[in-house]
Amino acid sequence: MSVWDELTGQADAIGVLRAAAESSVAMAPTGSMTHSWLITGPPGSGRSNLAFAFAAALLSAGDPQDEVATLRQVEARSHPDLAVLSTERVIISIDEVRKLVSSSQFSPSIGRHRVMVIEDADRMTERTSNVLLKALEEPPERTVWILCAPSEADLIPTIRSRVRTVRLRVPSIDDVAELIVRRDGVDAQTAERAARLAQSHIGMAHRLATNAEARDRRDETLRTALAIHSVATAVSAAARLMEIAGDDAKAITEERDAEERESALRSLGVEPGGAVPAQLRGQLKTLEEDQKRRATRSLRDGLDRILVDLMSLYRDLVMLQLGRGGSVINRELEVELNAAAAASTPAQTLETLDSIALARRRIESNVAPALALEAMLVSAIRTPRKVQ
């Protein structure tokens, strides 16, 4: 087994990083290895997975027998020469980056490299990015930085000039389905449907393939949009979509929050169900505040997932209205889609797609989500045609 085995649809990028890791181990003067990397690609393309596979390859020192054990340590974030900065909040704080930069100065303890990974590097403000910039300009000899972001444009120009960029593409539906079958053990039909509905987003395809409730919530989202026939139904649909996004965010965070609290209590020596000493309550309060910030981000991500699903719905309608029914994503709603396509024109459908894109930008800019959804769904009002 290799650290690259569970990656899919990114042969070119894997080739670049694999060659760099091998040249680093061999100390070969090929120029394929550098001290700072940027992995870019659309959401769900596997940026983080590739980053951690590369980290494991660097940390395993080229020993094939050591690769699997190293990868497990990397996945658990327990390798002594690995430091990871990730966030589920809106931005990465400057203090988090300062702490990471400080730890990057340490020498490797057991391997040839010390690897620093920043997921979602696009969530750094310019001031925070400048803290990182200083570390990239004069890194220790054996420190390797790996940044992940949707695109190069999401980082400031001075950082882009100091990293080597590896660009990922959207994997094919077949590639994602094959990975889901192999990794999650689901049947081929479920895997294909999940990959298709997720539009090749690997993480979302995994969730749809393994979580029936997530599939049901997605199905209700699309049916709710198709049932909008007036301003009143648009307003009620917005309220329902807010509830669906909240349920989805709660499902993702609730179990993790409980596990984190249990782990924190255990590390503090507090028995399950026992009272928390007053001097330890501050640490739990910090954890609870982090979890609240994560819940806010999860809700925003849930709303964005809903809007992406709606874009796939109206994209299907355009395809049907233009006679391209063979490329429909949401095939399970064929009857409803055909009826909706007959009730509007391609121009109206494109207008709704523009409204969805605008709603995404508004929510990202902190406009009240309910208002953004209501304004968007008004453009989705369709009056069913009367049967002659």
UniProtKB/TrEMBL annotation:
Pfam families for this protein: DNA_pol3_delta2
InterPro entries, sorted: DNA_Rep/Repair_Clamp_Loader (IPR050238), P-loop_NTPase (IPR027417)
Amino acid composition bias (Basic and acidic residues), ranges on this chain: 254-264
Single Gene Ontology BP annotation: DNA-templated DNA replication
Domain of life of the organism encoding this protein: Bacteria
Disordered: annotated segments: 254-276
Classification via SUPFAM superfamilies: P-loop containing nucleoside triphosphate hydrolases
Stretches of the chain forming a coiled coil according to its record: none
Protein name: DNA polymerase-3 subunit delta
Lineage, broadest ranks: Bacteria, Bacillati, Actinomycetota, Actinomycetes, Micrococcales
